[in-house]
Amino acid sequence: DAKTTQPPSMDCAEGRAANLPCNHSTISGNEYVYWYRQIHSQGPQYIIHGLKNNETNEMASLIITEDRKSSTLILPHATLRDTAVYYCIVRVGDSGYALNFGKGTSLLVTP
Amino acid sequence: GAVVSQHPSRVICKSGTSVKIECRSLDFQATTMFWYRQFPKQSLMLMATSNEGSKATYEQGVEKDKFLINHASLTLSTLTVTSAHPEDSSFYICSARDATSGYNEQFFGPGTRLTVL
């Protein structure tokens, strides 16, 4: 799996957009970018994934640069319940192997 | 859909006893389940991969005789911590892979907090 780099922590005001960056400069052509988050004392929750096109679902948007070396997860209107650790994981789409969690970004949404 | 449950959510036991944790996929069949462990302020660490009907594959440094994994059906995997000691106190999380999804989406259980006194 390609290695990912994320800032250790970020703050965001409630109601504003939270933009979480991820660098994955060694990503291979068949590797997807996955985002999960973990709210304190809960299991991780799947957010979104993408290969090269931008993706959007009810939770977030994923913007992947054209060279695919970095991506940004966008929470359009952050709420206090979005406070969590966010993990960016690069993975072959259907490898069947476990997810390799790095240290992630601890996002704090403040009132 | 794609719900994974774990039982119990929290357990406290005495040193030397064994504890069984169940992981169930409620609305899909999981040919593969994974067990992770998470110590305070650390990330999830994979312990083992469990495939239905076969022996689990353990990560380096994880004692297979201490952490017994059984995956007897497509919806249930169990982790038994044998002769638990205080250093086994941790947050244990399972995940299940929906083999039909094609995108390696994995769905996680809510976790089990184990405290060994």
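Chain B has a mean pLDDT of 91.
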